[in-house]
Amino acid sequence: MQALIEAAEKYRLIHSASEASGNKEGLNDAYVELITALDEAKKTSEANVEKDLNNRFTYHPPMPNQIGKFENIRKNARWMVELFTKMCPKSRELSLAITKIEEAVFWANAAIARNEKE
Q1: Are residues 70 and 44 in the same domain?
Q2: Do 12 and 48 lie in a common domain?
Q3: Using an 8 Å Cβ cutoff, are 42 and 65 in contact?
Q4: Half-sphere exposure at residue 97, Cβ-oriented, CA atoms within 13 angstroms
């Protein structure tokens, strides 16, 4: 990405100078460099998307060091749900709060499973 930024800046500077002076020398080379950098950035971006999709949609079996974390997250989420059910009247809002806690547990566990390496 840095190469793309630098190529774009170089092209902008050469283009501005050529507009002011009428001298187009170097403009074509800077344009080719910019397009090449853009193509490389696109390839890198596509590779990153592919890597991200593979990570998101691949089963991640729990590693031994993660099991305690998963259990701790669930235990504390359950504590919070129990607290809410004692303090709040049964209602749509309570159901939504419980659902959001379930979602938070899911995303916290996914963060560990998808991103934590041994």
Answers
A1: no
A2: yes
A3: no
A4: 16
Q: What percent of the chain has pLDDT over 90?
A: 52
User: How many distinct structural domains can be found in the chain?
Assistant: 2
Range of the structural domain that residue 78 is part of: 64-115
36-42's contacts with Cβ under 8 Å and 24+ in sequence apart are: 36/7, 37/3, 37/4, 37/6, 37/7, 37/8, 38/4, 38/7, 40/3, 40/4, 41/1, 41/3, 41/4
Spatial CB neighbours of 6, under 8 Å, sequence gap ≥ 6: 37
For the stretch 69-91, pLDDT in tens is 999 999 999 999 999 999 999 99
